[in-house]
Amino acid sequence: MNIRSQISMVFHLDKCIGCHTCSVACKNVWTDRKGAEYMWWNNVETKPGTGYPTKWEDQEIYQGGWEKNGDSVSLKGAGKLKGLKNIFANPNMPVLDDYYEPWAYRYQDLFDAPEGDDQPTARAVSLVTGEPMEVQAGPNWDDDLSGTPDYARQDVNFKNVSAAEQDAMFQLERMTFHYLPRICNHCLNPACVGSCPSGALYKRGEDGVVLINQERCRAWRMCVTACPYKKSYYNWSTGKSEKCVLCYPRLESAQPPACFHSCVGRIRYMGVMLYDADRIEQVAASDDSELVDRHLEIYLDPFDPEVIKAARANGVHDSTIIAAQKSPVYKFVKEWKIALPLHPEFRTLPNLFYVPPLLPAMASVGEDGNYDSVNETLLVGIEKLRVPISYLASLFTAGNEGKVVDVFKKLHAVRVSRRNDTVGDVSEKQLNTCMNEAGFDKHVANAIYRLTSLCTYEERFVVPAAHREESIEMLENTGDYKGSVGFGFKEKPARGL
Question: Quick count: other Cβ atoms within 10 Å of Cβ 436?
């Protein structure tokens, strides 16, 4: 076993309120520079919707991710031969209009305008060309527009949703929607790393964060094409690619990233997962029907003595192993199995998992023309949820509806259990039925409820600090403090720091 540690994440979509505080925090810290105006390393989309960049999920357009080739995988739209063919003209690369042309307002015109009968205005000016422009789109242009023909109905995840189900969803505009926050998934099998001709992208061994070496980047932009989540960007000012760095300076001091720290809805969880790197290719090449199961199986039990022994032999520090044992991500993903990867069919094995939204039930029109909103129990079952299971399966399980149903049974059981504890109007029959379908007891239901609703800061974010003393020892062993092994010290570090 080649045991490594990976910083992993869970987003609980039932708690996201779409405030974009996470996006603004990231923008203020990382992408408020020239050439990065259009970049949103963290963005929040409305689903159903086309997202950012437009239709990023449609790999028939962008050719991102990996595709199965027998017992292995190959890049769908990048790689040595494909990259060489598209080196001067890449038809699968998103253009600025797929994102949006960034702009500012010429507010000085409000003060400099000559006296007149008309009201002066601050015209929009492109931040790329400096010329006046008409605003056509933005990073959250389709915010809260679920049901609209131009945005929600163009969602590529409707390809497996029947026309009748779509008609039921779109009886009224905005009748149902949920938010989908997205950042770089820091995948186990990152397509961006595999596509880079310069070898500028790499995955850190100590925590699995995927980074770009700006000195080695030569602006081939194959990473932009290869990333199926479109979380690698090109800085038109510096001529370098950039992406989410998961605020690694904060991680090294045991702090969560800025977007996690600022989240108003407290939907974000972060922790360490231990995985077997030797199985990555085998898992990535799994059949679609087994992809989610194989993906989750690659993460190993941090309490298993054999796993601990192999991790220590591979240089994983004890503090990291302890953090993996306390990880909230491990509970959501492995113990309770209620968090799922986004678009596993891209085969990048993402390390960001989502608890699907248990959306309200939807009244339907009966044959007599009346709305059928009467139910035997107060909390209706998952068969009447507003969003079809097939839509959510397209998002989270490569079309496997059974996986989504299993998660919803557990979430519904937690809801029924809490209703029974707080109000007491749930029949014992309904409670037992829900618990049996979920496959757990009230103790587990209460544990899920606590980590979802009552968790502390320390329970949501279990991030081990980096071990600077090990870096210093590596430098001392080389006898050279001038940039040896890539740490870049110009003089001997002070021992007390």
Answer: 12
